[in-house]
Amino acid sequence: MLDEHDEALNGTSYDDSDDDEPFVYSEEPAPEKESNVDAEPARHEVGDYATQLSDLLGSDNEEEKDDNEDDDGDDDEGFVYSGADADQETFNYDGRMRDVMGSEHDSEEAKEVETSLLVEEDDDDEVLPDAADVQVETPLPATPTRTWSPLPGSTPGTPSKLLARPFLHPHVSRLRSFIPQSPSSTSLVTGNSAASVSQLSSLSHLPQKKYFAGVPLRSISQHIFASAAHKKAAALLGSEAIGTPTVLAANGLICVGSDLGRVCVYDFKQNLKCICGSTSDDLGSVTALALSHDHTFIAVGHATGHIRLYDLKNPGSPAARCPSYNAKHRLLWSKGRHTAIVSADEHGLAFYHSLGKVLFVEATDILRILGKYPIDDPHPTVGKRKSRYTVLSLGPLPLGTTPHPTDTYNLVALLTPTKLVVTWFKCSRSDTIKGSEKNVGTLAWFPSVTGTSTQASTPALVYSWGSHLHVIRVTETKAVQSLKTTRTGKAHDVQIGTITYTSVGSWSTENGPILNIQWLNVNQLLVITPSHIEALDVNSLKSVEKVSFDGAGLACPPRVEEEQQRPNVTHSIRTYKGKIFVLSQTAIQVGTLLTWADRILSFVQEGDFLNAIELTRSYYLGTAPGNTNGLPDDVDTRKDVVGKKMRDLMVASATYAFSEDRMTDGTHNTPDGRGVDRTSLFEELVSTCCRACVALDDTDFLFEDLFQYYDDNGISSIFIRQLEPFLMDHEIPYVPPRITKRLIGLHDDEGKVDLIERVIWHVDPLCLDIDQAITLCQLYGLYDALIYTTVAPIVTLLGLIRSIFRARRTEDEEEIAEDLILNAYKIYAYLSSVLAGLEYPSEQVLDADEAAMAKKTVYTFLFFGRSSLWPAGEGGKLVLTADEDGGMEPTYPYARQLLRFDAESFLHSLDIAFEDTYLNGQTQSVSRSLIIRILLEIISSGDFSTEDVTFVNIFIARNVPKYPQFLQDIPPSTLHNILTSLAEDPDIDTRDDRQLAAEFLLSVYNPHESERIITLFQAAGFYRILRTWHRQERRWAPLLSTYIDDSTLAQSEVFDHLDEVLKTSTQANHGHLPPELIQVISDALPHLLNLGVEHTAALIDKHVIDLHQFAFETIGEEQEEKRFAYLRHLLGPPSIHDSEYGATPRPPKQGPSPNLPPYLRQCYVTLYCKYKPLEVISALKYLPSDSIPLPEVLHACEEHGVYDAIVWAIDRDGQPVEALRKLDGFEKKLTLQLVEVFSASFFSSSEVGHIVESLETLVRVGVDVCTQRSREMSAEVPLEDIWFQLLSSQINSVQSVSACCSPGIVTADSAATLQGDDTQVSTWETLSSLRTLIRDTFSALVSITSTRVVSFPRLFTRLVDSVPRSSSETQYAEFRTILTGMLESYRSDGDMLVITKSLAIEEVTKERNRGWALPRGACSICRSPLLVVQPKNSGRGGAVTPQIVVSRCLASSA
Of the ranges 505-514, 793-802, 1139-1148, which one carries the lowest mean pLDDT score? Predict the structure, then answer.
């Protein structure tokens, strides 16, 4: 078919691939057309920040110019904006800054596009419909606020005390028995910057900015959305109405379709190029638009189902026509031709249209791709369409800027609710997408383009169902096949290509179904949901930006009823070259996703250059959140691009900050009207530039340019104070000495000595002014700083120590300055660091050569045999140590001096030095052996105290086994002397340290004279060593003594070890305990009893039972409580109070011990009656009945008044009648005591309470005896007689007490009715308690007795008759009171039972009416199910009915 309009479009390309063009819409119009936007900016003043930045930031990255643009010459002309639509206004800050940040990222065509789109906008212009002033929704990452504080534990004004070592705590000294874990010394000064607050990437303070920016296209909007007056005027002039906009296309030209079937075409100058269509055609509203890739043809779909193709050179009449079958269209151009389009309708029909002419006659060729015609469907569905025939979206693969093998396949993708169909392959929908989500879908292609690298990209297809998005890349795969030629029959190999795809990944959103997807650039997608617009990074498949969105204001084409709940955005939002075109109901707008340069520019436009630098730094470090559009992917390239911008920003910012304009522009006016205060500006500028320079690892600008600004303006102190935290945290490692000198001088002027010292030992010595540092250190006594800066710290501190010794000879120790002593101790910290290869005081590891040189110098100086010159060579002076001038210098003067001052600290430093490998070398002039020989020679002079000598011996003893290969030349006699010296020192404070050192030494040295050594060790208390020796030689008695004599062992440890030794020795002696061990235990009993009575009792009862009597007598009569604890542990019941004498809980035992003699058992009962009278019965119950003779028990209990125990013991002996007789006698005795107390003129309530308590206890025991015998119903026991005896004694007691009381007390109902004093109340309460005992006794009798054995009426008659006749009236009144109280109690109990019965009946009746719940639905007898569900056949089948099973198990069991 010939087609006069068909022409190859090899010169055109898909031009949506420009991903590097920033687009910021300012409040200012674009420049005039005749003005040269690329020309050099006008000459500017010093304070013109925006103009300076336009020079600095706009010309160094031309290589990033987009290669993905069209070279279409026809379009270029339309991209030049003449400025006809907006008034010109001068504002160099905004306009020029836009040029600054965007010039290097925009291609020529893209710059013309956005320049032509720039129009004047108001402050209230919207970015997108209903999304005005969208704020940043993803906050920038927050880091802790910069803080600066002194060193831990620092005290202002006393810096030297922070770093001194006045003594070594026993838990720090390596000579003590506690062994530190760290191999190096613990310094109080640290240079570790990790402990400080991080200074990196502090972006939390940045103001929130827009991620998207946009403006309305006013000229187009005024033309399309004309007012009613304009429409009426146009009608009067005969112009055809345009109508209301319905659809939008914007790729090279801006095309707007209307409800009257017309299409207005505008260029990017917002000038109307043409209007396609006429209202006379009556084709219905425009439902779809598609502009060809070369911007010369436009395809228009109408609501009536017609498609028209217009040539923009002749828009008056359509170039081609094509009918369709439904009202809703999707139109897209197929690549390579002007007359090839693809369309789809609402019912799933998709077509390929080839519109052309043959011999000047229209010859339209239509190919159905998918779906069925209505006439082909024998059973058409009325109303709801079939989902498998629905085309959710379609699109052909467009041509890219770079040829790709897939271009020849004319790929077309169609998305249905069930699958994605692409020519050559298909992808099925995931089963996880269900419900209405499967009916919402969209897709978009991105062709092959050439990015920043020379390699072309692979075409990508993104598609979605519901809220799930998928990305695939399409490639060609070739395979070799053998084909035969039909003419010749010969076979030859042919490469056959096929299309394959690779899944890139998936992504889902939480904001509802995805309504539309469009490519912003090769790396980013625009994803539109009902509530948000998101920018998605394709490489990471992460959302980088998100803004709120409401599609209610979009101008949408007519929608079918089932889609009314979601906005149709397909034809209302378009993207082109990274720009977003939006057709709303009132205007046409254009926006863009801000690039990194745009976001920086947004701060610059507001004059906030500090936040601009911070944001640039975050891009440099790769920590900036969200979109990084426009930045190179390569890290080094990105740092090159952003780093240069950051340097230029700092330069321009400094110039602008110190310009005069800042004094007059009102930026820093104070709220109180005092004028301009720029202090905060200058402070933040320094800290911001410091962080930027740290990121760049380049501080030249900071110290050369920026500091000069501050110095020239007389505010260098602001710069120095803001710089100091970076120095303290070691973020800036090098500072010029001239600046450090200023910083130290500033603190000196303010008198802050602690800050001077901190600065000196935090800064590299190369950064210091040495003269200033040494002068201040000597002036203020900053010896830590002085050590750090000078090369002779030992000489300086030795002189300080000499001064202290001199002062001690003439002054009292307390009068010597404390600071002087503290500073002198720093020499030991210095030696610990230097001899371990560390820098002092920071403890940073020194360079190997530097460390070796420092160690050699220190060792040579310290252990030189005589005084040395310092500095060495000509001009040096002798470093003297003698206390007096002209005094004799001893041998090894410096090591001797350090030992004299503090031997432990000096040896601690040497112990650290011994671990260093420097002393391993054979070629060194110093060795461990030499140092030990020198130390031994020094202490042999006799000038040192015993403590100092002991520490030297400990040091040698601890190190000999650690380094045997280096210390093997020490003579055994020397080691023997060290060992005996350690044992002979009487100092208890160092005993553990000396014992540990002796253990170290004995690991490599076997001493002679072992018996003498043992004697010395026993005297020294080296029990740990002795125990090891005795156990090895099986000397059990001495071993046992070591545990007994060792005062360092805890109480439980002593007895555990004694038990273990006795057990082991018994086993070794064939089951018999050796007699010498018994003697050791016997001799140690006083000591063991003091350690723990109960533990001693358990130990003797287990191993040496013959010593029970001796142990009991050892305690002594004056310590009866300990005797009681001893016996109770062995004979008494277990109790939580077993350890009341300080012992740990005793081990569990079974029953009382059978090993105690009878005498001790009798003593046990006696002591129990004395100390625990209320628990005697429990104790007797725990003992066997025959363990203690009954007379002894009765005698002990009666002697201490424990009457209840006597009654119980007699009853247990089988004499209940005798027990009740005894009870009657005891009760009369106690009653007589009560009567005597009440008869006295004054009595104590506590005395009365004690007697009443004894009566109550006695009566309860009697009730228990009677109750127990009544239950047994033994014929040998007269039950009625014992109950009569019990009740009679109680009644007599009540009668006796009431007889001595006044009538008012006897007849009173309560204590409240008495008008007397506390004595009457106490008497009434006593009488009431006795009456209560009688009622309780009667209750017990009624509850358990049988009328066949005990007759209650007869018993009551006997009680009444037993009353003496002489006072019958009073006694009968007492009986009446007792009986009335009993009946009242019974009546109350009866009422309670009636109420309970009524409530129970009511609840049972209620539950019975509701039915009883079956437990687990099974019979409780046979466990058979009571409800079975069985299928029941019915007409339709499948129904089930439950059946109830009748069980007779309960009835049968009943």
Answer: 1139-1148
Nearest to residue 1345, comparing CAs of 1268, 1287, 1259, 1257? 1268
| DSSP three-state, residue 358 | strand
What is the three-class DSSP state of 854? Answer: helix
CA triple 520-524-530, angle to 5 deg: 75
3-state secondary structure labels for all residues of 562-581: HHCCCCCCCCCEEEECCEEE
Task: Tell me the C-alpha distance between 720 and 748, whole Å.
Answer: 14
Q: Say how far apart CA 205 and CA 190 lie, in whole Å.
A: 31
Q: Kindly report, residue by residue over 1247-1305, the tens digit of the pLDDT.
A: 888 888 888 898 899 889 888 888 887 777 888 888 888 888 888 888 787 777 766 56
Alpha-carbon distances, residue 1334 vs 84, 985, 1292, 1322, 1323 (angstroms)? 121, 78, 11, 19, 17
Task: pLDDT band for 321, please (50, 70, 90 cuts).
Answer: confident
Structure-derived torsion over alpha carbons of residues 533, 538, 543, 546, reported in degrees to the nearest 10: -30
**What mean pLDDT comes out for the span 1033-1040?**
93
**CB contact at 8 A, 301 and 343:** yes
User: How far apart (Å, rounded) are the C-alpha atoms in residues 941 and 1090?
Assistant: 47
* Separation between Cα atoms, residue 629 and residue 525, nearest integer Å: 11
d(CA 1123, CA 562): 98
Cβ count within 10 A of residue 1141? 15
Give CA–CA dist 18/216, Å, rounded: 22
Q: Which two tokens stand for residue 774?
A: 């040494």
Nearby residues of 451 by Cβ (< 8 Å), 6 or more positions away? 19, 67, 68, 457, 522
**pLDDT recorded at residue 1308:** 62
Cβ contact 1345:1270 at 8 Å: yes
Q: What is the C-alpha to C-alpha distance for residues 830 and 908, in angstroms, rounded to an integer?
A: 12
Q: Identify any residues that bridge with 413 across adjacent strands, giving them in sequence order.
A: 395, 422
Peptide bond into 22 cis (omega under 30): no
Angstrom distance (rounded) from CA 178 to CA 244: 92
- The whole-angstrom separation of Cα 93 and Cα 112 is 21
Q: What percentage of the chain carries pLDDT values higher than 70?
A: 70
Distance CA 756, CA 946 (A): 42
Helix (H) or strand (E) holding 1226: helix 1216-1239
Task: State how far the Cα of 42 lies from the Cα of 309, in Å rounded to an integer.
Answer: 49
- Residue with tokens 């936040």, as numbered in its chain: 611
pTM value surpassing 0.85: no
In this predicted model, what pLDDT tens digit does every residue of 163-197 receive, in sequence order? 333 444 444 567 676 544 443 333 323 333 333 32
Phi, psi of 421 (to 5 degrees): -115, 120
Mean pLDDT, residues 412-429 taken together: 84
